[in-house]
Amino acid sequence: MAENEAAVEKVELDETRVEAIREAVDRGDSDEVSRLLKPLHAADIADLLEQISGGERRELLALCSGEIDGDVLSELDETIREEVIERLPPEVVAEAVRDLETDDVVDILEDLEAPAQGKILDALELVDRVAVEQAMSFPEGSAGRLMQREAVVVPEHWTVGDAIDYLRKATQLPDQFYHVILVDPRIKPLGYVTLGRMLSARHDVRLKDIEEDNFRTVKATQEEEEVAYIFNQYHLISCPVVDDSDRLVGVITIDDAMNVLDEEHGEDMLLLAGVGEEASVLDGPIATVRQRLPWLVVNLFTASLSALVISRFEATIASLVALAAVMPIVASTGGIAGTQSLAVAVRALATRDLTSSNARRVVLREVTAGAINGLVLAAILGLLGTLVLGDSWLGLVLAMAMIVNQIVAAFGGVMVPLMLERFGLDPALASGTFVTTLTDVMGYLAFLGLATIVLL
Amino acid sequence: MAENEAAVEKVELDETRVEAIREAVDRGDSDEVSRLLKPLHAADIADLLEQISGGERRELLALCSGEIDGDVLSELDETIREEVIERLPPEVVAEAVRDLETDDVVDILEDLEAPAQGKILDALELVDRVAVEQAMSFPEGSAGRLMQREAVVVPEHWTVGDAIDYLRKATQLPDQFYHVILVDPRIKPLGYVTLGRMLSARHDVRLKDIEEDNFRTVKATQEEEEVAYIFNQYHLISCPVVDDSDRLVGVITIDDAMNVLDEEHGEDMLLLAGVGEEASVLDGPIATVRQRLPWLVVNLFTASLSALVISRFEATIASLVALAAVMPIVASTGGIAGTQSLAVAVRALATRDLTSSNARRVVLREVTAGAINGLVLAAILGLLGTLVLGDSWLGLVLAMAMIVNQIVAAFGGVMVPLMLERFGLDPALASGTFVTTLTDVMGYLAFLGLATIVLL
Questions:
Q1: Measured between beta carbons, which residues in chain A are less than 8 angstroms from residue B201?
Q2: Which of residues 397-456 of B touch A (CB under 8 A)?
Q3: Closest CA to A76 of A97, A55, A98, A102
Q4: pLDDT digits (tens, 9 = 90+) for B352-365
Q5: Shortest Cα distance from A100 to chain B (angstroms)?
Q6: Are strands B189-194 and B179-183 parallel, antiparallel or unpaired?
Q7: Per-residue pLDDT tens digits for B139-182
Q8: In which band, very low, low, confident or very high, does the pLDDT at B92 lie, cut at 50, 70 and 90?
Q9: Contact B365/A231, CB-based, under 8 Å?
Q10: Does the pLDDT of residue A9 top 70, yes or no?
């Protein structure tokens, strides 16, 4: 954020620039690499380091480690951050982290192994080191880890003029702040005043008289997911963080909350699909296998349930082999319906549109919609089955099984995440696997069971 | 945001309060309902209206329409916003929208039918009405719709003192602003200064000398999804919006961008599951059927492809009916693997970790991981198949088919979203259906094909 950098016009990272940088790295042309990196935002330099191959990354870091500052480190995906820090000369790392706010240092530290952590802690000034170590004492994923320690506080009885004089004289203001926090003598936050309102008020106005009515604090131990929800729900820009005795310990700003919201969403999508929540396209094959294999093995066994169900009806299938061909249609369409219902429910739980107040109504709505979908699909499949297979009884069985399975899918899709949440688990936790197991088993059972009764 | 409201302590909406409000509504006790609504944030009142049933909502609105202000309307889910506006007396609606920033009015208007739109436009003062109508002239989902017209701009050559004097005298400042935008005489934005930096600088410092280096503008026609990405990527708090000739037309603030990010994520999750992107648990059964039936019908036909594949092997199945029982294991585990790979790829495309620069590397990584997963699963399934079914040749066929299908799943899971994106479509667009169709068809084909060769 040095002021003399303002002159460089920022450009976005596009394919042409990535290619140009790669070529310059190949040629070992460090001046050209520096020239191409210079106008990029730290977040884009981090993206570049993530997109190029491991070999290119190694060469680039060797050529111009000086371009990697603290902001780049804090933007890097944790998968490769450790590797980058290891390759940088200690003095570059020290220089890089010294410019960062404490919350960014904490963010970098928490994913590192002990030796790399020590390297960074040693580089900090004592006061920053203490702040960072205090933040690290809060649980991972808590507001205490997310907050910055730097806050602008003033006594609640001050006037606008007092506050402006104070700010003009202060030497250690945070890089970015949007509010002045009013505190009592115990440093308990009581309210805040936006800088905009302060600037447009007369000097003799009391800060208390122009404070925002939309004031909230969060506890340092609160989960960051909850914090992100509060920011989004109440349109906060910044929010004071307090300890158990309600004393101010830091401030969280909306850009950090937005980041958490973004990450939580990504995790939900991955969990829903049965992938470890930290999965990234930047992971190597072995890390990828480790994230995915567990649920695949679980699915291998749950899928065996379907096999067990089908094997009970081998006699039925033996007498009409066409059944084996059409039975996956019922199971598969059920799987899609279950996934649809599930996605809507997981989303609604995240946005708190689905709560215990309306759960019963939502389940009923799902089952009704499932029944209607089932009827329409049954009509199409029944007709098609009758025409193509030339067997109207088989068409009827297909249609009936479809209705049953669509209702089961709609019901299961909303009940599985509701139950997971009730038991304090993440409603997205591999619920896809549970729901498709349910629709598979029920699909085969309904179809083959009905076939045995009707056709034999 | 009236200052006298600051005294009421804000509480969060919990189950107890929802129940208490419901009971008061049942009793027709409008004083009690008002008392219980008063300490709630507008976003929580909106959530309450969404969670209660249609009948309760009608009664609540009849009892105390006065508690519904513009902020509540702008927080309401569009599914019920129209209903609420229709039930409110015209003067309440008029009063409500007059307090809102133009971007919030636009947000409300764009989902309404023409008569309700007219009702709101008529309630606005002329200058606001013109601003709203101008914003409505930008395409839906564009930055022009998202921005507020109210911006604080000053000539680039001003000093801090000039700006502070100007702000002190200004009568029409926005509710919330965090930057002063520097413009040239054509009102082209050239940079901005944070209020914090302005407050702590000397009065004779030129604004140009303390401007942020992290300055960006967006075009009014840019998509809001792109805008949200820019805010999150570059940690912006507010961003000027310009027209085609680079003149300032408005400002977008991060709370609106965060909202867009949240909505886009929800849409991705729904699209991936094959549900219309506007689906909500608040929709009625008919709206739900309309959002889901199309993809279910598509899936009915794609699932028929699997049936077609299986029917080609009826002779094989007839000679060994156990094949019909175990074949879904291969297909189902492939479906899960494809979904895993898909979720990681869709997420990576959204965060731009997956670009054309590393697509080849990521695909190779997926296929490698798929092959390893396939080998492990094949070992388990082959052994299990041999032991349970007492047929080592059948175990071998299961194992080989599993390897093939895991590789297909990993490849398809990343290629489908990459292709959709290449063709300018949303990579999440029902890709789940495509990928599971692929893994189903390949699963049955590989297993039954190998069984025909090896076992017969």
A1: 168
A2: 406, 432-433, 436, 440, 444
A3: A97
A4: 889 888 999 999 99
A5: 14
A6: antiparallel
A7: 989 999 999 888 899 999 999 999 999 998 887 788 788 899 99
A8: confident
A9: no
A10: no
Q: Which CATH architecture has domain A153-272?
A: Roll (3.10)
Can you read off the two tokens belonging to residue B271? 């699209």
Taking contacts as CB-CB distances below 8 angstroms, the residues of chain B near A355 are: 15, 18, 51
Which pair of tokens denotes residue A64?
Answer: 């111009």
* Alpha carbon distance B57, A155 (integer Å): 44
CB B180 within 8 A of CB B170: no
Q: What is the pLDDT of residue A98?
A: 82
Q: What is the DSSP string of A225-258?
A: HHHHHHHHHHT-SEEEEE-TTS-EEEEEEHHHHH
A402-428 confidence digits (pLDDT tens)? 999 999 999 999 999 999 999 988 888
Domain ranges of chain B: 3-137, 153-272, 285-455
Instruction: Give me the residues of A, 76-135, that contact B with CB < 8 A.
Output: 77
Fold of A3-137: MgtE N-terminal fold (1.25.60)
Average pLDDT over residues B183-194: 94
Contacts of B148 in chain A (CB under 8 A): none
* β-pair partners for A180: A193
Does the CB of B246 have a partner CB in chain A at under 8 Å? no
Q: Among candidates A345, A407, A332, A261, which has minimal Cα distance to B270?
A: A345
Check A258 against B259: CB less than 8 A apart: no
Total residues found in chain B within this entry = 456
The whole-angstrom distance between B115's CA and the closest CA on chain A is: 28
Residues of B whose CB is below 8 A from A2: 213
Give the Cα separation of A350 and A428 in Å (integer): 10
Which chain A residues contact residue B295 at CB under 8 A?
A: 336, 340
Residue among B51, B300, B337 minimizing CB distance to A292: B337
Beta strands (DSSP E) in B57-201 are 153-155, 179-183, 189-194
pLDDT for A5 equals: 42
User: Average pLDDT of B1-16?
Assistant: 60
Q: How many DSSP H helices and E strands does chain B contain?
A: 21, 6
Residue-wise pLDDT for A241-266, tens only, equals: 999 999 999 999 999 999 999 988 88
CA–CA gap between residue A345 and residue A175 (Å, rounded): 40
Relative to beta strand B189-194, strand B218-219 is unpaired
Mean pLDDT, range B317-321, rounded to an integer: 94
Q: Give the C-alpha distances (Å, rounded to integers) separating A88 from A73, A81, A82, A116, A256.
A: 11, 11, 10, 11, 26
Class of the CATH domain delimited by A285-455? mainly alpha
Which token pair is A164?
């402006």
Average pLDDT, chain B: 89
| Backbone dihedral region for residue A192 (phi beyond 0: left; psi -120 to 50: alpha; all else: beta) | beta
Q: List chain A residues with CB under 8 Å of B289.
A: 369, 372-373, 376
Record: contact A343-B275, CB cut-off 8 A: yes
Q: Which of A218, A317, A336 to mutate to test the interface with B (most CBs of B within 10 A)?
A: A336
In the predicted structure, residue A182 carries a pLDDT above the cut 50: yes
Distance, in Å, from the CA atom of B11 to the CA atom of A215, rounded to the nearest integer, reads 11
Task: Inform me whether the C-beta atom of residue B328 falls under 8 Å from chain A C-beta atoms.
Answer: yes
Given strand A248-253, what is the order of strands in its sheet? Answer: A218-219, A238-242, A248-253
Give the residue with greater pLDDT, B284 vs B206: B206
Beta bridge partners of residue A192, listed in sequence order:
A181
- Cα dist from A262 to B222, B265, B430, whole Å: 21, 8, 21
Summarize the confidence of residues A371-398 as an average pLDDT.
94
The pLDDT of residue A440 is 95
Coil, helix or strand at residue B142: strand
Do β-strands B153-155 and B179-183 pair in parallel, antiparallel, or remain unpaired?
parallel
Type of residue found at A446: A
Cα–Cα–Cα angle for A313, A318, A322, nearest 5°? Answer: 95
